[in-house]
C-alpha cells in the first residue's frame, strides 16, 4: 500500500461521523478508501444496520469502487454485484445504490445504516442525501465519501459548512505524488485560464459563469494590520442565510480583511464575533438595522462592546459590484479567514445564491471609501 502523507493522515484522523475528501480530479482522494472500507466493514461486523455503497449510479460505483478493489484484493474478497444490488465484501454484505434520482430515496426508507461509502457526492440528488442523513441513525453509524468541487451555491457545499460532525480534507492535483509530472503539467496547461482549472487542478469551489471576482486575493499572517479597524456583521435570522462577520482596516492603498461565515442564526455566533473583534482590536461593530429595528446593535452594546447601527438603502448587487469590485485587486486577507467566506465572494454573480460574505466585505469597502483620507 503506497500512500502520501496526506492520505495517511486521513486514515488516522477520519474518526468522525462524516469523513469526506474534497478536491481536484486525480488528486489521490479515493485510493486510501479502498483500504479504509474493509476496516469500516470489520468494525461494524455483528452490529445491527446495513452497509451501503452509494454513487451517482450503480455502474459508477462498480467502475470507481468495486472493480479497483477487486484488482487489489481479488474477486474472492470483493465479490460481483448481484441483480438486487448486493455484494459480499470481506465477508460482509453490502448494498450498492444509485443516488442520481429523487426516486432512489425510497430505497433507503425504513432502513438503519451503520456504514455508508459515498462516491461523487455532488452528482447525487439532494433528496437522496437528506434521506441518507436520517438513516444513519445508529450511535456508531459512519459515512466516508469523496467529491469534486462545484459551485459554492451547491447544496453539498452548504452541508460542508453546516457544523455537523465532519472531518474534511481538501485536495489539489499536486497532492497526488504518484501522478506522472508531465501528465500534471499538460493538464494544467489544458485548463489554464478557465474555471475548470480552479476546480479540477486547485480543488476550489468556484462559480462557473458570471462571477464578478475572478482573481484570488493575497494573504498575510500579521494580525497587527487589523488593529484599529472596524467590524461588521451581516446577520442571519433564519432560513438558509449565513451570518457573515468581517473585520477591516485600510492602510494606504491596501484593504485588509478578515472574515468568518456560519450557516447559523446570528444569536448563536454573536459571542464568537465579539471575541474576534476584541482579538483583532476592531471597533465599532456595524450592523444593519432594517431587518431587526436595531436589536442586534443594542444586544452588542449590552455585552459591553461598541456598536453602530445603520439603515441600508443601497441595492446589494450595486454595492458589491461598486465597492468590493473596486477594492478587490488591493484586498489582502488575514490568514485564518474562513475558506467559505472567500469562496462565497468568488462565487458571487448577482444571479441568486448566497451574498452574505460579499455584502459584509462591500460594506467595509464603502466605509473606507467615504473616509479616503484615513490610512
Instruction: Please give the order of strands in the largest beta sheet.
Output: 3-4-2-5-6-1-7
Tell me about the largest β-sheet.
Answer: 7 strands, mixed
Spans of at least 5 consecutive residues with low confidence:
none
Morphology: elongated
Order of helices and strands: HEHEHEEEHEHEHHEEEEHEHEHEHH
In total, how many domains does the architecture comprise?
2
What is Rg?
A: 23 Å
Q: Which CATH-level-2 architecture of the largest domain?
A: 3-Layer(aba) Sandwich
Q: What percent strand?
A: 15-25%
Structural class: alpha/beta
> Fraction of residues in helices?
25-40%
CATH topology of the largest domain: Rossmann fold
Tally of alpha and pi helices: 12
What does this molecule look like?
The chain is of the alpha/beta class. 34% of the residues lie in helices and 22% in strands. A 7-stranded mixed sheet has the order 3-4-2-5-6-1-7. Strands 8-14-11-10-9-12-13 form a 7-stranded mixed sheet, with helices on both faces. Strand 10 and strand 11 form a beta hairpin. The protein starts with a helix and ends in a 6-residue tail after the last helix.
List the helices and strands and how they pair.
Layout: H1 5-13, E1 18-23, H2 33-43, E2 50-55, H3 58-73, E3 86-89, E4 92-98, E5 113-118, H4 126-135, E6 142-147, H5 155-160, E7 166-171, H6 181-191, H7 195-201, E8 218-220, E9 229-234, E10 243-251, E11 254-262, H8 266-280, E12 282-288, H9 295-302, E13 307-310, H10 316-327, E14 331-334, H11 339-347, H12 356-369
Parallel strand pairs: 1-6, 1-7, 2-4, 2-5, 5-6, 8-14, 9-12, 11-14, 12-13
Antiparallel strand pairs: 3-4, 9-10, 10-11
Helix pairs in contact: 6-7, 10-12
Amino acid at each position: 500500500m503506497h500512500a502520501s502523507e496526506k492520505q495517511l493522515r486521513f486514515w488516522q484522523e477520519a474518526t468522525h461521523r462524516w469523513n469526506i475528501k474534497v478536491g481536484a480530479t486525480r488528486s489521490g482522494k479515493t485510493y486510501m478508501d479502498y483500504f479504509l472500507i474493509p476496516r469500516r466493514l470489520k468494525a461494524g461486523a455483528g452490529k445491527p444496520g446495513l452497509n451501503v455503497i452509494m454513487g451517482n449510479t450503480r455502474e459508477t460505483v462498480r467502475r470507481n469502487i468495486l472493480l479497483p478493489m477487486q484488482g487489489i484484493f481479488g474477486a474472492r474478497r470483493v465479490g460481483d454485484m448481484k441483480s438486487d444490488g448486493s455484494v459480499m465484501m470481506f465477508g460482509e454484505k453490502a448494498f450498492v445504490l444509485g443516488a442520481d434520482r429523487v426516486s432512489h430515496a425510497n430505497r433507503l426508507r425504513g432502513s438503519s445504516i451503520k456504514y455508508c461509502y459515498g462516491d461523487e457526492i455532488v452528482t447525487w440528488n439532494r433528496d437522496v442525501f437528506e434521506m441518507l442523513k436520517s438513516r444513519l441513525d445508529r450511535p456508531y453509524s459512519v459515512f466516508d465519501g469523496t467529491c469534486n468541487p462545484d459551485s459554492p451555491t451547491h447544496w453539498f457545499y452548504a452541508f460542508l459548512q453546516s457544523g455537523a460532525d465532519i472531518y474534511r480534507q481538501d485536495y489539489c492535483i499536486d497532492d497526488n505524488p504518484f501522478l506522472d509530472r508531465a501528465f500534471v503539467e499538460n493538464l494544467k496547461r489544458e485548463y489554464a485560464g478557465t474555471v475548470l482549472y480552479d476546480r479540477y487542478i486547485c480543488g476550489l469551489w468556484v462559480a462557473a459563469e458570471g462571477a464578478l471576482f475572478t482573481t484570488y486575493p493575497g494573504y498575510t499572517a500579521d494580525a497587527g494590520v487589523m488593529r484599529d479597524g472596524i467590524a461588521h456583521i451581516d446577520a442571519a435570522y433564519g432560513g438558509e442565510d449565513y451570518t457573515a462577520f468581517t473585520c477591516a482596516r485600510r492602510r494606504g492603498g491596501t484593504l485588509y480583511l478578515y472574515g468568518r461565515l456560519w450557516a447559523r442564526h446570528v444569536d448563536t455566533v454573536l459571542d464568537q464575533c465579539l471575541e474576534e473583534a476584541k482579538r483583532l482590536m476592531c471597533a465599532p461593530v456595524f450592523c444593519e438595522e432594517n431587518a431587526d429595528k436595531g436589536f442586534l446593535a443594542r444586544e452588542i452594546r449590552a455585552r459591553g462592546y461598541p456598536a453602530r447601527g445603520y439603515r441600508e438603502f443601497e441595492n446589494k448587487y450595486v454595492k458589491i459590484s461598486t465597492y468590493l469590485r473596486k477594492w478587490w485587486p488591493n484586498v489582502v486577507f488575514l490568514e485564518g479567514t474562513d475558506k467559505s467566506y472567500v469562496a462565497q465572494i468568488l462565487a458571487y454573480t448577482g444571479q441568486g445564491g448566497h451574498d452574505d460574505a460579499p455584502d459584509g466585505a462591500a460594506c467595509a469597502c464603502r466605509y473606507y471609501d467615504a473616509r479616503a483620507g484615513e490610512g
